[in-house]
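Re-running the complex after MR caught last week's input typo. The corrected sequence lines follow. Everything else is unchanged.
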Amino acid sequence: MGVTKEQVESSITAKLSPSYLAVIDTSGGCGASFQVEIVSEQFEGKRLLERHRMVNAALTEEMKDIHALSITKAVTPDQWKKQQDTEKSQAAA
Amino acid sequence: MRFSTTVPTDPDTHEDFQPTNKLESSGLSLKDIVEQDVKDNSVMIYMKGEPALPRCGFSSLAVKVLREYKVPLAARNILEDPELKSAVKAFSYSSSSGTVFVDAFVVANSVVVERMLEGETDSNWPTFPQIFIKGEFVGGSDIILNMHKTGELKEMLKGIGAADAE
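Corrected-run output:
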């Protein structure tokens, strides 16, 4: 059996207390492949490699059944706000 | 009597019947191979398949990004050797930029930190490809792509092509 989107969400929520979290099942339903976007204060002061390690560690159990985990976003609330502002101004332009 | 599917830890079990660990017996030499790989090659990638024929979309992506920089790329196919796979995982855990790594985590003081320091190695980087640049573990395909976009990768690869092309 694969892993559900809800399991991934609850594990990340429990360990990284994200202010924003998006989990997308990219496996087509079999639960072996996920894409995640996380915004968390716990990423503050950490390099990208360390942030990805934190996510991997939060999903230790799930990773036994997940084939592919793509972390497309691992940012702090401040970084995220800046990114959104940039996107908005680009869209407006 | 209870029936159990787990291996008994009973000290009376004869050693002939104890589970063997192939990884442990060959781990040392494989670790040496990985260590040598990473030392000898400025850009080393452990991937699924060969650079010319990747067997996984993520490995393919990583190779594509690195090729953009025209740097010499050394690769090993972890699909050919499951034991190598374990050796790389253990190595990428231990080799990632020592002091910075530990300092940051001492400050962070979270559950994740404790688990990492306790040495749950595989959980910290369970996926492939795994890319090492100048002897340091950089990360997987998401990180490489991200660093490519931000320009960090260019900075990191500076000087490699020229030096190795001689």
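None of the earlier attempt is carried over here. DSSP finds four helices and three strands in chain A. The first helix of chain A runs from residue 5 to 16.
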